[in-house]
Queue: 2 jobs
Job 1
Amino acid sequence: MIKERFFLYRKTFLALIVAGIFISIPWVTSDFFVLMAIRVMYFGMLTMSLTFLAGELGVVSLMQASFFGIAGYFVAILQTRYGLPFPFPPLVGIAVSLIIAGLLGMLVIRVRGIYFLMLTLVLGQLVWALASQWSSVTEGDTGIMNVYAPVLFGISMEKSKTAFYYFQLFFFAGATWFLIALRRSPFGLMLRGIRESESRMRMLGYPVSLLRYAAFVFAALVAAIGGVFFVYFMGLINPSSVSLATNVETLLAAILGGINTLAGAVLGTGILKTLDVVLSGITKRYLLFMGIMFLFVILFAPKGIIGTVRNYGRSFLSPLMRWFGLGED
Amino acid sequence: MVGKKMIWLGVAILFSTLWVWGTAHAVSEIRIGQIGPTTGWATMFGTEGLNGVKLALAERDYKFKGIPIKLFTEDTKADVEVMRTKLDSFKTRDKVHFIIGPSLGHEGMAAVDWGARNPDVPILIGYSAPEDITMRKATPSVIRPGWTGPQVIFHFGKFCAKDLGYKKVIIVGQDYSYPWDQAAGFTRGFLENGGEKVERIWHPVDAVDFSSIMAKLTGMKKEYDAVLCNSGGAQVVAFFKQWYQFGLDKIYPQILGQANVPIVPMLTELADMALNVYSSLHYYDGNPSEANMKFRESYLKAYGKYPSVIAVQGYDAMRVAFKAMEAIDGKVDDPKAFITAVRQVKMRENESPRGPFYFDKFGNPIQNIYIKKVVKKDGKLMNIAVKTYKDVSQFGPYAAMPEKYMAQPATSREYPPGNKDDYFREIEKYFGKDYMAELKKNNGWKE
């Protein structure tokens, strides 16, 4: 009886475990770990926006960091130059990011495959060039500084890393839930239909372009939320946050974790960003090691870590995964 | 009874030894963090700085008065997000007493912002040259034993106008903030000392094909006297090559260079093309001083090549830290005392390869600026000083009015204006009529 009821709520149970782990991080780990977790979360949102597009639409975008950066830049500009109080800079930042995604979306949804990659690359570089050259607004390569995280309920997010962690965790969980919900909704199903066969979906009467467009804007929204936390945590923003290097690193994190999955995005970002700091403390040739690691991932696990676990680990993991209802997703 | 007395004696001895031990070894290990770009396009700026720091530490066998020194090094990848994370790691993971670095402009700006939020970790800035690190954004815990971009080039503008007699100069450079700063400093020195016009041509940072610019320069010879190359690294090599290919060496007297153009690593790349290039800096490799000779030889022995100014600054930063540690008897665990001590350090003649220097109240050195010329000595290219300006502050000729200087807008690709009339209208707005009258009276700067 109890067992049956437990089985019924197994997904809630899983969610509670995951939530418990995330919530307990500042209590059981060091300051340094919290710091890394914060980094992984904001970059994780950026990577999730990429894997959402890759997984649902089957396209690889090289401009997600632009939406991340645009939101960040607007927070920085509105706060430091115009002194707007807290909820407004992030709201405006995200809104502007969405508007720009809306405008550019009209262009990019027209193309597919390699052309999508190229077009987003060009547009992403355009945003980078603006950030670097339009120095009266963006302060050029120096970037905008003196951005401070807000004070919420009397707690300064700037002073307490733990408070910042929870503040971000709330939105991170929200963004993740949003993307999962989208995937599971009829909207997500339609997107996957488009991914599999666009002509068939069009013939069936689905508004293909509109759906692709909406997916693009939704992805930008998640990236923009990540960008807000990025600028709050870093206290500054400069063109490197919208550069090609950031975009490529996001793509690498996605490939490492598994480009079609949201969990892979977070896992890949976590591994990449942690290795970056940990390995570089040990050896100066750390980039070589990371390169070799990528080589192995591409050669032997092209679906990334999550994909590989699903494929090879099925035999011994599947009873557990099926029990949690994650078997064949 | 005797037993009780013995116990008291024992306790007393224990406490006194503990006390003595406690004061003699305020810290059991001095931990230093060094950060800079050691991978990526800016590797040279990171590794040379690190080598300089290591050389200064090796001179003392990684010890200070018997206390071992541990050096932690981190790579920024020339990315500020990475750098901030690593500064945080220095603080929370390695618990360093102070940090030396970083090297690049945008890194330095991010480091000073981090320093303002973490005032308990002193930072000695490496090669980063933006003015605002020690001007508008200056913060007590951040000290720069280095330079600012305009500081080293103000007087080069004057030299070009007065000593070389040029009236109109073209500046060709990479389009980002460091070359903007160089152009700004040069423009001030040039126009205020009799120059008439500075024309700026900007090209993308990684451009290597300058044929259109070379063609333009050929046409501009009718009006202009000289060309200043305001780029760095590979772009300089490409620029010099094409300069000779297009025969511009026959129509212009020689190339002028921004501060980084003829530094040591560039000389090997440019070879004889670099001959006769004029530039200015706070260090010159041909300095015959004892300190410089010794430094060059020991660096050559340790790393197999001659050091550049970047290494000098790493070396100097560590030596400044040593001097400060001496003043506070090695108690680096008191950041306030350490910061105060660093700010009071005075490097005398022959203590640094660059010459004497001390810090202004913003934490930037007041030092000699050398106008350099590349010559060939014993078959080797090197910079010699043709003129020395002593005790130049980061405000250059405006040392008496730092507030007015800082009230001006930040430099950009067009600011300050390169046209004489516009320029004077602009500085009158900030420095006042008295300053203008003085300029006119002295026919330029006084010294």
Job 2
Amino acid sequence: MHELGIMETVLDTALEFAKDNNATEIKEIHLLTGIIFGIHQEYAELFFRMVSKDTIAQNAKIVFESVPACFICTECKGKTEYPAFSEKEFYCKHCGSKKVTMVSGREFRIQNMVVV
Amino acid sequence: MDEIRIIEIKKSVYENNDREADKLRQQLREEKTFLLNLMSSPGSGKTSLVLRTIEALGQEFKIGVLEADIDSAVDAQTVARTGTQVVQLHTGGMCHLDAGMTLRGLQELGTRDLDLVILENVGNLVCPAEFDTGASKSAMILSVPEGDDKPLKYPLMFSEVDALVLNKIDVLPYFDFDTDAVEERARRLNPNIPIFAVSAKTGQHTERWADWLRGEIRAWNSDAC
């Protein structure tokens, strides 16, 4: 359900940047989402269609790019990337330690957009 | 025909909310009001823990409560019976509270004379973790019947909070709930998190939770000087 609020923010931001850049139509919006960030892409698209109706973004294609989760091991300082979310426990792939700190994977950014 | 262009945005979807949350936190610091954001699944015992907290700290601190739910006022009515100031917020279908909604609730409650406001967030382990409400500290409850695998399934919530309360320990004998496993899984996401195993129903060990909260409130107020 949080996809609704988030996609409203995406729309508002996109419209604001479009206005500042004198764009007449938004063709594509590129979003960067960390794999730990729980967003359901189909719902997000559906909500975007709802909120963007009758705006210059109504036909915009939403492109998701996922960012892997990155952990630093507190013991060997090694870096481990997890490209997809799973329920498996996160651990350091270098030394096997389970004491790892997440440094990325939670972000949700509006990266750029294609306009005319 | 107009030319196709790429406009760089590189903006977090949380930027506006984070800004409002920081502003609210600053205002609360100046007013010496501590805001606790309490999160959990529905039915884990948020309202029961709120009642125990009022019982433990109500003499020392002036307490207010914000109850957030999609609908109904049952939690607010329960809390109001203790004589505590309470405001019921309806999110109207939204699964979480953001800083703007929290601010409106606080304005209705009036925070100037309050030392502690407990925000009982919408029952949900996913969405509330993603939005900064402007709280001084956040805590979550995991109750025994929910199972010890929850830190694996909802890692964001467990990594965002400042304290974890394991509630309903009075029913531990009836469930396959491994307290040590939960603590280990939670600490992997959040290495220094304080964990309090309590029963809000019987009152067992709830003083440990209250002691932690008292310390946090005092630290918040002394930082404001």
